[in-house]
């Protein structure tokens, strides 16, 4: 009887909400059923509620499953349609092309602009095909004139435009190059005899050079690529000078004699070390030596005055005082820049770092590591380090 009563109360226990009776602030104890018939009725209701809950849960699971399956199928259909649509938009020729044409990439043009011009020339079928091919190949496109064909496959065009050896008709200036190298390149790119360029260089630059250049072109030709097709030697040289002046203005280089002075310092710095991280320190050494009334003693300046590389200098040449660029003998800066320096060397020369360095040596020719010191004793130590490294390298 006790077990039956426990089951009875366990199965039928319930709590009464205290909010339904304002006379009590706490819940009432469980109320037993009035009869066994009532107990059976409650058990039956409980079972029905359980069955209904289980069935409802199963229905929800089934609906979710059906909905998810339908959703996946819909997503797949949308993806396939989207891909098909994308493919239809990226139209491309199958190649290899038919009619030969010359196509020019101008300096500063990006892939999108080049793509539009290729479509206009009927070389590629769509801009999207070309830009996708450029992106997929992570290609760098070079300025120049290229031999292409109409109706080419976009990826084949990218291979050609990213091969600098196939570029023609453009004269390229690299930072640190001398005028003699630049006009030789310009002559080859334009088909104009180098003597015509040399005549302009020797002519004083009237109407081309600014007054502070003193009639000398060295240092005043801006690095970059220049279209040399169907242009005169004067037009090509003038475009290089105009670009240099514009760049110096952009960099905030003072005008007048100070501009020429900065170009000289920058040209020496770029010629002396092979890394832009040292340009500023070399510029500071130059200024410190001038302030101390010391000769600059730079072999690269001596070599420039002779039209050779520093590695070919002899002792007699290093002691030749007839060379105005011999900074071992003549104090102060050189008469002109000794190359056409790039942006990094110019910026470093405008505002070189503070320091008391008086000497520097590239101690490791393979890595380009350069050390800067203040005293002569320290100089001989790093000089010995250079010799030891050089001997080990050989």
TrEMBL record:
Record's bilayer topology term: Single-pass membrane protein
Site label Important for catalytic activity, positions: 272
Q: Which EC number applies?
A: 4.2.2.29
Q: Where are the transmembrane segments?
A: 50-72
- Quickly give the catalysed reaction: a peptidoglycan chain = a peptidoglycan chain with N-acetyl-1,6-anhydromuramyl-[peptide] at the reducing end + a peptidoglycan chain with N-acetylglucosamine at the non-reducing end
Region Disordered: start-end pairs: 13-43
Looking up Pfam families in the UniProt record yields:
YceG
UniProt keyword annotations, A-Z: Cell membrane, Cell wall biogenesis/degradation, Lyase, Membrane, Transmembrane, Transmembrane helix
Task: Please classify the protein's predominant subcellular localization into one broad category.
Answer: membrane
Q: Biological process (GO) annotations?
A: cell wall organization; peptidoglycan biosynthetic process
Give the subcellular location. Cell membrane
The domain of life is: Bacteria
Q: Where is the composition biased (Polar residues)?
A: 13-28
Q: Name one GO molecular function term.
A: lytic endotransglycosylase activity
GO CC field: plasma membrane
What this protein is reported to do is described as: Functions as a peptidoglycan terminase that cleaves nascent peptidoglycan strands endolytically to terminate their elongation.
Which HAMAP family does UniProt cross-reference here? MltG
Protein family (similarity comment): Belongs to the transglycosylase MltG family.
- Name-wise, this protein is Endolytic murein transglycosylase
Query: From which organism does this entry originate?
Result: Bifidobacterium catenulatum DSM 16992 = JCM 1194 = LMG 11043
């Amino acid at each position: 009887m006790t077990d039956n009563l426990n089951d009875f109360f366990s199965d039928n226990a319930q709590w009464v909400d205290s909010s339904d009776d304002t006379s009590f602030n706490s819940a009432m104890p469980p109320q037993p059923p009035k009869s066994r018939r009532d107990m059976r009725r409650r058990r039956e209701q409980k079972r029905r509620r359980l069955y209904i809950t289980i069935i409802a849960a199963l229905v929800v699971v089934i609906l979710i499953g059906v909905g998810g399956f339908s959703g996946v199928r819909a997503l797949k259909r949308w993806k396939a349609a989207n891909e098909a649509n994308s493919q239809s938009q990226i139209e491309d020729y199958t190649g290899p092309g038919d009619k030969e044409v010359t196509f020019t990439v101008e300096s500063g043009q990006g892939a999108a602009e080049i793509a539009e011009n290729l479509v206009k020339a009927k070389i590629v079928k769509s801009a999207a095909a070309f830009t996708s091919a450029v992106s997929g190949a992570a290609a760098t496109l070079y300025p120049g004139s290229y031999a292409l064909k109409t109706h080419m496959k976009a990826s084949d065009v990218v291979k050609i435009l990213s091969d600098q050896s196939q570029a023609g008709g453009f004269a390229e200036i690299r930072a640190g190059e001398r005028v003699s190298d630049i006009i030789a390149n310009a002559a080859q790119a334009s088909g104009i005899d180098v003597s015509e360029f040399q005549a302009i260089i020797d002519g004083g630059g009237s109407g081309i050079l600014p007054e502070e250049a003193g009639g000398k072109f060295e240092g005043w030709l801006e690095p970059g690529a220049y279209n040399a097709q169907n242009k005169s030697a004067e037009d090509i040289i003038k475009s290089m000078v105009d670009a240099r002046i514009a760049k110096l203005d952009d960099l905030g280089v003072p005008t007048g004699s100070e501009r020429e002075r900065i170009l000289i310092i920058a040209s020496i710095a770029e010629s002396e070390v092979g890394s832009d991280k040292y340009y500023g320190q070399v510029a500071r050494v130059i200024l410190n030596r001038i302030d101390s009334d010391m000769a600059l003693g730079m072999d690269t300046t001596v070599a420039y005055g002779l039209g050779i590389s520093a590695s070919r200098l002899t002792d007699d040449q290093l002691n030749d005082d007839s060379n105005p660029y011999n900074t071992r003998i003549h104090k102060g800066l050189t008469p002109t820049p000794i190359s056409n320096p790039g942006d990094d060397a110019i910026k470093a020369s405008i505002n070189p770092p503070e320091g008391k360095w008086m000497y520097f040596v590239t101690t490791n020719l393979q890595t380009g590591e350069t050390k800067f010191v203040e005293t002569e004793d320290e100089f001989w130590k790093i000089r010995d380090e250079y010799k030891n490294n050089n001997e080990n390298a050989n």
